[in-house]
Design brief:
Layout: H1 58-66, H2 82-87, H3 97-108, H4 111-122, H5 128-148, H6 154-166
Helix pairs in contact: 3-5
Keywords: GTPase activation, Ribosome biogenesis
InterPro entries: YihI
GO molecular function: GTPase activator activity
Length: 167
């Protein structure tokens, strides 16, 4: 059988103790009531959570919130270095006149475009892909001519003036 340790508990069968009255207590050393000593230093957490004023009164807490030493400076700061702001300006690539002239001459010598324009002049209808090709190439030709300062309408006027001068 297992060993059962002795206990000081009386168990459920023993009579309950009666509370002692003050006059029945033994008269001996009396313990004086605890006195609160003067505290030295700040309470724990006072550095990160400064307590100012009394906790009562919402007006005081609002005023304290404005003067909270934990909050930093209200001075606005620039997030981007001023030296970097000037560098970030993107320069547009310089206009390459030689490349534009080469592309313009390539469009003028495009055999497929010439054939399609001849078919349009003859009155034939083009497929969607052919019409899109013609439209794209003619728009690009007009853009390049405009960039290079070439007027497309002036050629006809000079031809008419030359014909009138010869007559």
């Amino acid at each position: 059988m297992t060993r059962v340790k002795k206990t000081r508990k009386t168990g459920p069968l023993a009579p309950a103790k009666q509370p002692q009255n003050d006059w029945e207590k033994p008269k001996g050393k009396t313990v004086p009531p605890k006195t609160t000593q003067k505290t030295k230093g700040h309470k724990p957490g006072s550095r990160s959570n400064p307590v100012t004023g009394s906790p009562k009164g919402s007006a005081k807490t609002e005023a304290n919130a404005l003067n909270d030493p934990r909050h930093g400076s209200k001075k606005p700061i620039t997030l981007i270095d001023p030296a970097q702001q000037h560098v970030q300006q993107v320069k547009q690539p310089a206009f390459d006149r030689k490349a534009a002239l080469a592309e313009l001459s390539a469009l003028e010598n495009d055999q497929r475009l010439e054939q399609l324009l001849d078919r349009v002049d003859a009155g034939e209808t083009l497929s969607k892909a052919e019409a899109a090709y013609v439209e794209e190439r003619t728009e690009r030709f007009a853009q390049l001519a405009d960039l290079l300062g070439i007027d497309l309408d002036d050629d006809d006027d000079f031809d008419d003036e030359d014909d009138d001068a010869r007559d």
